Amino acid sequence: MRFFETVQHYFNDAADRLQLSDDLRRLLLTSEREVQVQVSLELDDRRLATFIGYRVQHNRARGPMKGGLRYHPEVDLDEVRALASLMTWKSALVEIPYGGAKGGIAVDPRALSRRELELITRKFVDGIHDLIGPDIDIPAPDMGTTAEVMAWFMNQYEKYHGFSPAAVTGKPVELHGLPGREEATGRGVGLLTVKLLSRLGRRPDKMRVAIQGFGNVGTHTAKFLQEAEMKVVAISDASGGYYRPEGIDVMNAVRYAVQRNGSLEGYPDAEPISNRELLELDVDVLIPAAIGGVITGSNAPRLKAGIVVEAANSPVDPTANAILEERGTIILPDILANAGGVTASYFEWAQNRQFYRWGLNRVRQELDRALGDAFERTWQYAQENKCSLRQAAYTIGVSRVSRATLLGGFV
Ligand code: GLU
Predict the structure, then answer these.
(1) Please, which residues bridge with residue 385 across strands?
(2) What is the whole-number distance in angstroms between the Cα of residue 98 and the centre of ligand 1?
(3) Domains along the chain?
(4) Per-10-residue mean pLDDT for the chain, 411 residues long?
(5) CB distance 232 to 225 below 8 Å
(6) Which of 96, 106, 116, 181 would be a feasible disulfide site paired with 75, CB 3.0-4.6 Å?
(7) 223 among known catalytic residues
(8) Rounded to whole angstroms, how far apart are CA atoms 88 and 96?
């Protein structure tokens, strides 16, 4: 199933609950603007390379549009469109004053040198700088992009528009960034996992967890959960999975990956398994924290975890979702589970505009409060309406956006 179809399916489910008219549904499913730009550069070996860059601005009923920039070979318009609309529901669910957007370039960043990565970023800004800005659309990191990429992005944007740190978030702390932004998505995933366990009456120290993906989100999630005394028994990245029933020493694995340019390849202190095997391990909690669409109708029947926490965007398709729900698997949906990133981005943006910066403790405190409130609201809605956490989260998000749209009017 294509990504946009997945998001549309979950949206329609919420729209049914809210009894939204077909006309309003059509409006809420249609992007405000979708652009595709040519990104051409001379590679280090003097060859000319041309890539396609996308920016989809989905909805701005609740504020400027906000969302990450993804560098991945599989990026296409359908995926970016789906991810942009997820940002709209996500921002509404955590009650930050943003609409949704997303962008990306269809490129494998690992195949580029640092200079090429910088050039590709600057060329992309050249193509879209007129369409974005602190009050219009604010990019941020996503899969394959880092704080360093955001620094280049800001610098190139400022060549056209002058000093504008709030034009992009997820910047390095030394360059108008926010302490705690980098860890925020993983910290949020960890925090919400612990909250969910507490609501379910389960003790964290009895929980075995498998995490797919060991990038920014996966590593910070793993660190948080290990500190919360959960046993991280499996981790993985593009090089494969690594399983240790007695528990992996997360900091040791992070140090190993850092020394090898971010890859776990050959990690010696665990048994090598495949990414597919990791998803099907006999664990209590499964956390997909890599790409979307990894749990489908074909592997869902073999999943053993009773709890799935969607750290990645859109990792479970609707067929798999139905199979898992039928079986009683509890799913913490992406728009709640990974909302820590955009929430911390909001703090960064707000502070850039005031030339004031919070310290790490304040960032963590405010983040924990914002996510905690969204979790309680979602949990309560699901209990009262006897529905899944996904249905609850989408219904709250979609209802806030549709309400703002109607209040704003159409003339
Ligand atoms: N890329 C992240 C997400 O999918 C963060 C977006 C942001 O900070 O704007 O939520």
Answers:
(1) none
(2) 12
(3) 31-166 (3.40.50.10860), 184-337 (3.40.50.720)
(4) 92 98 97 98 98 98 98 97 98 98 97 97 98 98 97 98 98 98 98 98 97 97 98 97 98 96 95 97 98 96 98 97 97 98 98 96 98 98 98 98 94 74
(5) yes
(6) 106
(7) no
(8) 10
